[in-house]
Amino acid sequence: MSVVIIYHSGYGHTKKLAEAVFQGVQAVNEMAILIAIDAEGNIPAEAWETLAKADTIIFGSPTYMGSVSWQFKKFADASSKAWLAQTWKDKLAAGFTNSASMNGDKLSTIHYLITLAMQHAMLWASSGFMPASTKAATRNDINYLGCFAGLISQSPSDASPEEGPLPGDLETAKLFGKRIAELTLARQTTKLT
Asked: CA 120 to CA 116: how far, in whole Å?
């Protein structure tokens, strides 16, 4: 069972989020693989084969101007070869994003990632978390930003990657990675019986 996390990070905040998701996956499955999309929107040639062999792919991108970064979009456009061959069909998919604003139209990015997964005939997994929506809730509670369709986080625009995302968002990311790994494992167990 392998879970691949493929992401682009412009300033380091989304990378930190990807690493937290990776830690969560690794808590269940040591076959976690982290692939960074570079500043030119490329991935190593062998990464395409890694994606083809994966059981699950988790997509990650910062939210820029209400959608994924152009580097992530370049990767997504290049995935048309995998689409044509239906290489990712029936794989589990999930996604995450980060932006400076509390809202920042992050859900548009998550919807883009869902659409990408649907184009590839993949199966989308939700975050699975209830929101922290009571008066007693604090900014570092799990799923404080209240997204069900994927993982979202926020890093202040003047924060270094060491300062953001905040601890609650990083803990949510770890639990998200763990959930996706557990879903992957459950699918594998079902296939084996």
From this structure: 6
Q: Please say whether the beta carbons of 53 and 22 come within 8 A.
A: no
The domain that holds 73 is classified in CATH as 3.40.50.360
Mean pLDDT by 10 residues, the chain (193 residues): 94 97 93 96 97 97 97 98 97 97 92 98 96 93 94 93 93 97 89 61
Q: How many domains does the chain have?
A: 1
Instruction: Judge whether 127 and 179 are in contact, CB under 8 Å.
Output: yes
Please give the residue range of the domain that contains residue 112.
3-192
**CA dist list (Å): 93 to 39, 41, 173:** 23, 20, 15
32-37/56-62 β-pairing = unpaired
Output the pTM of the full model: 0.96
